[in-house]
Each structure stands twice: as C-alpha cells, then as structure tokens.
C-alpha cells in the first residue's frame, strides 16, 4: 500500500470515529424517531448537497453592501481628516494659511494648491455635520430642479368637493359658461407652438377673434370688426389646409384676399381623406357630415353652422399633427432630444413659478446654488487630498465659483430684510450659476420653459394658475416665445417677468415704444378662463351622457379683471381675519382655514399676486388700442395694406385698398352670386345716409385710412348671419 493510500484510509477512519457532538446528535435522532441519514464516502456529492446548506448572497447585494461600507468609511475619513492632517503636518498647514493669499496674488502656487487654500474649512470631528453634508450631496441628484412641473389631473376628494361647492357659490356671478373655449385654446396652443409655419398676420389672433369670426357669441354692433374677424377665420381655414396638403406656408392675408379660387382644391382632398383619418366624435352619428356641405369649397367656413366651424378648425389642427410630415418630424425631434431630464408620465406640464409660486421657485434656485457650491468644494478637497488631477473644465468652473463667492462676500448679512438683498445678488449672477450647473443638473428653477424644447410637446402655454381642489386658470394669448424682450408678453422666465412687473409698477414703460416695437407681436385682446378639470375627469370616468360646461369666462377687460382680483384679495383678508362679507364667503373662509387646505390658500395668494401684476400690462394695452385704433405700426411699405369693408346698394361687399403699393386686389370671391354677406340693411337708413357714407369712403381712400368704427356701426345688421345655403337668418339669442 502506498503512502497516499494510507493517508486516505487514515482520513476515512478519522471521519468514522465519532466525537462528542456526533454521539449527542445520534441520541437526539433516536429519541425523535428520525431516520439516520446514510453515510457517504469522502468526496461524494448528492442532490441534497445542492438543495440545502448555506446560500451565498447575490453579487449585487454584496456589491451594494460593500459600496455602502466604502461610503461610510469615506465619511468617517472626511470627518477625521482635519485633525489627522494637523497632527501629521502642522507646520505645512500653518505655512499655507499664513502665505496662501500672498502666494495666490503672486502666482507662485499651483492652481490646485490655490484652490485648496481658498476652500472653506471643515468642522473638526463633527461627524453629524458631515453626514448631513452627504445627505445634501445626494439631494443634488434626487430633487426636481426643473423649470416646469407636472400638472397632475386627479379626482376631487370629499373635502375638496366641499371646497369647490363653496367656491362656486361665491363666484358663480362672474363665471360665464363657455363650453367652446377648450377647442379654441387647443387651436391657439397649436398655432403658438408651430408659429414658424404661420404668417405673422395670423399670430395676432385673439380669443375674441375666434368667438366673433366663428359666430360663437352674439354678434356685435360693429360690422367692420365682425367682417374682419370672419375673413381672418376663413384665412386661418385656408392656411391650415395649405399646411396639411400643399406644405406651402407663410401666405399673407393680402395674398389670400387676391386669390379667386381659395378652397376648392384642398376641400376636395379633405373630403377624400377624412374617412381614412377619422372624423370627430361629434360628427360620427350625423347623417350628413358637414365637410360635404356643397358651398364649403366656395365660401369656406361661412357655409357651416358655428359649432361645426370650430370643430372643422380643431380637426384640421389634429390632422396636421398626425398626417403632415414636417410637423410630425418636428414633434419627433423635440420628444427625442439628447437632453433627458426624466419627465414623468404626466401629459401636461406647466411653468414652475405659476403652479408653486414665485417664492418657492426662488428658494429652490438658492438651494440648488448652495448644493452646487458644496459639491464642487467637496470634489476639490478630495482631489487635493488624494493627489488626483482635475479636468480643465472643472478648473474653469472653480474659477467662476471663486468669482461668485467674492461677489457674495461683499453682501452684508442683514437679518432685517430676510436676506432679500442676497437673494437679489444671487439671481443677478444667474449666467454664472448656469456655467456651474453644467455637468451636474440638466435644468434649474429659473430657466425659461417656453423656449426649452424638452417641454415643447407637454407644456401648457396659457396656464396662469391653479387652486387645489377647484380648477385651473388660463390666459390664451398668442405670443412669440423667442422674444424675451417683448414688453407685452408675460409668458417668459421668472427673472424677465419680475423685471417686467417692476417696470410697469414704476411707470418706466413708454406707451409709444410699446406701440411701435411690440404691438404687432401679441394679441391685442385677452380673456381669463377657468377650467373645471376635476369635474370633467369625473364625468369622463362615469361616462356621463350629458355634456356639462367645464370652461367658464372670468374676465375679458382690465376692469372686470380688477374686480376679480379685489374679490380674491377680500377672500385672503377674510381668511386672516376669520370673517366674511356674506354667508357664502364665511362658509368658504371656514373651509380654507383648515390645515388640509393650506395648499389651496397658497394657490389663491399666488394667483392674486400674478393677476395683479399682469393687469397693469393689459391696462396699458387697452390705452394703446384707444389711442391707435385703426393705425398700424410703421414697418415696411409692402406690409401696409388694409381693407375697408362697406356695402353697395345691392348689399354686396366691396373691398377697397389703401393704394399704398398700388397693386390691384381682386374682389372678395369669384362666385359673387353665391355669397350674400348681410352686414346690415343700410338702405333702410335713408338715401341721405348712403350718400354720406359713400363720400366718406372716397375721402378715406385718398387719405389711406379705413372707415372708422362709428361709421361702420351705423349699418344696423340686426344680428343676421349666413346659413349653409347662403341665406340670411337671425342669430339673436
């Protein structure tokens, strides 16, 4: 027998020799009646060996555990670093602290050593402060620093239903139902987002132009403005079909008015494609779809009923987003950008300061600045301690940080103003902070979400406020997001907005400057709308058959807006004083004073402050309209075209030109016999008035001016409108 075999046999005998523990185990097995497991040979493996025994942790668990241990060791090491450094190299620390400023000015010290000397000293042995610093360091990457936040759509709770009922009782007298407002807001938002595809003649449309031009409200006494609004709606109908089929954009209003056959070709294409693309749900169960109205290709939207006109415009916007390749490519591009800020599943986003308030946005920006400063200084210290090299980009950021800190050191710590002076200085250094944010965060609370492509598809352009449990408020006005210096545009980032409000309060805005530079870039009218979205969402889930009004008009002038602001201010004061002017206000005040409605109280204050400031802009805009009504700002001579709307003796329309460019413009449509625009029975006013009107028209033509509103309003049209067959019918309600 070889020596190896003898060693194996000796090992087997040693395993067979029972020790004290094995004997005890055998006695327990006999007492319990368990069956003794069969003895295995040495080295033999069975299935039981794989099914039982100690199981090792997963690799990911071991790595996470070890990573946490490394983080904890790093924290402890950072806490003990100052004391250990003093004990190990006391002379070097003393030398650096004594000559760091001189060495820095002389330029004899390396950049890393200069930055290390400039870094703030750490607390000695304070492990709790270091742990808090570590938590703040994690907050930099976990907190939402974006300039736009989700607008969550959810049902009301039982308490919120009581709040909404009390709110409705207090403000029902100023809320006018406007069910069509949602579709108009949709079309205006589409035009605002894709403004590059529309001529500037369409980018000044107001909410009232849609109402009057589509005859959604009772016609006004001003015949001239009514006919202008109708022409502009037909012009919009023409441009939408051109974008949908011909991809030809930027057709001016004067070019549109000179065309004889405007709608026939594209209406024919629309009729062929509508069944493939689908029809709106309002048209699905109709025996006769309005698109196939015989006179639609001749007189445009005037061939349809008012509700069908709006539905046609809204449907064209939907078709363009889904079927037009340039628009579809633009949507795909902005939804697949390299800049990913981690948007949630919410479909609607709104500006941060409009939803959470100005104070919350400013405080979030200050907190972000502190986080960035702490993170950069910590990264700098670790690099110096471990003798690691820093990237040139980070060196450049450290130089910017040093400049920012030098400016902030000069700001006195005055506790009386609650840090307002320091906050103003921090916001004034916004451009430098943006350089420091690069590589750390994708967005910041003071950024402009209206120009950021990340929020292009989801941002609600006209949102101005929300009251939790009540609903949202919208201010639909077309604006140019790229013109931040537009003094009539309130949809900008928070920094420009606060400066704009301050200039209006201090009467620093010149009315002539407003008119000459900015009057043609935004809508000249406004309207404040209220959207009861929780009720709409509730009825949608319940599949309610009756369509209730979810949109309401709050105000459409500075006077009515000021009245609404005063009522909000009175409500805020009654909450603080625990009293109300009437029973309805007392009930609402009692509900709002509950702690669970604190968010609603803050929303009311934020909405009131914003509307108070923006009301100054609208007041100036109304003054401009009164002073310069009918006069266009001086630009290029090729754009100075206007049309005077009058009637001849037969009641047909004549369109006169300014003759500035001396270019002939065709009369309205080619099929004059099919169009009977009823703008009033002028002949009933007498022959003398007709002659007077004709003389005034000739005078205005020579002076290159339109007919004034007071003359045009003399033709009392008695609320007539066109029906589908072109006949006159009364639209009085």
Automatic annotation (TrEMBL):
Residues 1-59, 708-733 are annotated as: Disordered. Residues 1-37 have a biased composition (Basic and acidic residues). Residues 718-733 have a biased composition (Basic residues). This is WHIM1 domain-containing protein. It comes from Huiozyma naganishii (strain ATCC MYA-139 / BCRC 22969 / CBS 8797 / KCTC 17520 / NBRC 10181 / NCYC 3082 / Yp74L-3). The gene is KNAG0I01490.
């Amino acid at each position: 027998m070889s020596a190896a075999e003898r060693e194996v046999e000796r090992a087997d005998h040693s395993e067979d020799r029972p020790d004290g523990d094995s004997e005890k185990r055998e006695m327990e097995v006999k007492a319990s009646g368990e069956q003794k497991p069969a003895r295995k040979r040495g080295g033999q493996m069975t299935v039981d060996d794989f099914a039982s025994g100690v199981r090792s942790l997963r690799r990911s668990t071991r790595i996470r555990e070890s990573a946490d241990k490394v983080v904890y060791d790093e924290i402890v090491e950072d806490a003990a670093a100052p004391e250990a450094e003093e004990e190990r190299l006391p002379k070097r620390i003393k030398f650096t602290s004594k000559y760091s400023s001189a060495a820095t000015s002389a330029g004899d010290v390396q950049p890393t050593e200069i930055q290390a000397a400039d870094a703030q000293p750490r607390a000695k042995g304070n492990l709790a402060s270091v742990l808090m610093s570590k938590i703040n360091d994690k907050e930099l990457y976990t907190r939402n620093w974006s300039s736009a936040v989700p607008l969550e759509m959810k049902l009301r709770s039982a308490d919120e239903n009581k709040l909404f009922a009390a709110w409705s009782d207090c403000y029902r007298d100023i809320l006018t139902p406007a069910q069509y407002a949602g579709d108009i807001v949709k079309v205006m938002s589409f035009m605002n987002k894709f403004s590059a595809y529309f001529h500037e003649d369409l980018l000044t449309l107001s909410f009232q132009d849609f109402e009057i031009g589509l005859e959604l409200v009772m016609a006004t006494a001003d015949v001239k403005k009514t006919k202008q609004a109708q022409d502009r709606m037909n012009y919009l109908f023409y441009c939408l079909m051109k974008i949908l089929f011909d991809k030809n954009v930027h057709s001016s209003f004067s070019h549109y008015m000179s065309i004889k056959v405007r709608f026939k070709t594209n209406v024919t294409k629309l009729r062929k494609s509508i069944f493939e693309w689908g029809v709106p749900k309002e048209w699905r169960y109709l025996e006769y779809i309005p698109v196939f109205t015989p006179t639609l290709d001749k007189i445009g939207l005037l061939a349809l009923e008012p509700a069908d006109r709006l539905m046609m415009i809204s449907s064209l916007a939907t078709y363009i987003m889904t079927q037009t390749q340039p628009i579809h490519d633009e949507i795909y591009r902005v939804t697949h950008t390299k800049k990913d800020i981690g948007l949630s599943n919410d479909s609607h986003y709104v500006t941060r300061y409009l939803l959470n308030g100005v104070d919350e946005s400013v405080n979030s920006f200050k907190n972000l600045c502190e986080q960035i400063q702490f993170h950069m200084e910590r990264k700098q210290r670790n690099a110096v301690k471990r003798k690691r090299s820093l990237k040139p980009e980070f060196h450049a950021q450290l130089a910017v940080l040093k400049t920012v800190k030098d400016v902030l050191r000069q700001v006195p710590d005055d506790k009386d103003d609650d840090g307002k002076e320091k906050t103003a200085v921090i916001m004034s250094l916004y451009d430098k902070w943006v350089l420091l944010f690069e590589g750390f965060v994708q967005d910041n609370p003071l950024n402009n979400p209206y120009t950021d492509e990340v929020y292009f598809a989801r941002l609600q352009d006209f949102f101005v406020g929300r009251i939790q449990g009540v609903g949202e408020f919208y201010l639909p006005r077309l604006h140019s997001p790229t013109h931040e210096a537009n003094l009539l545009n309130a949809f900008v980032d928070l920094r420009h907005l606060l400066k704009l409000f301050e200039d209006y309060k201090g009467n620093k805005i010149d009315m002539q400057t407003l008119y000459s530079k900015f009057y043609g870039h935004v809508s000249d009218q406004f309207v404040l709308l209220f959207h009861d979205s929780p009720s709409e969402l509730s009825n949608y889930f319940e599949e309610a058959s009756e369509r209730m009004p979810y949109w309401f008009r709050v105000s459409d002038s500075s006077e009515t807006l000021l009245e609404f602001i005063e009522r909000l201010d009175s409500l805020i004061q009654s909450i603080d004083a625990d009293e109300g002017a009437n029973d309805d206000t007392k009930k609402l005040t009692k509900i709002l004073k509950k702690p669970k409605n604190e968010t609603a109280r803050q929303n009311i204050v934020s909405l009131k402050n914003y509307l108070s400031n923006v009301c100054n802009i609208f007041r100036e805009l109304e003054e401009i309209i009164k002073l310069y009504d009918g006069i266009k700002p001086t630009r290029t001579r090729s754009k100075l075209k206007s049309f005077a709307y009058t009637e001849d003796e037969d009641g047909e329309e004549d369109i006169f030109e300014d003759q500035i460019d001396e270019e002939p413009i065709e009369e309205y449509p080619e099929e004059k016999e099919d169009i009977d625009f009823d703008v009033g029975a002028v002949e009933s006013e007498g022959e003398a008035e007709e002659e007077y009107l004709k003389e005034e028209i000739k005078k205005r033509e020579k002076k290159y001016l339109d007919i004034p509103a007071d003359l045009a309003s003399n033709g009392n049209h008695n609320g007539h409108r066109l029906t589908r067959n072109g006949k006159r019918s009364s639209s009085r309600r």
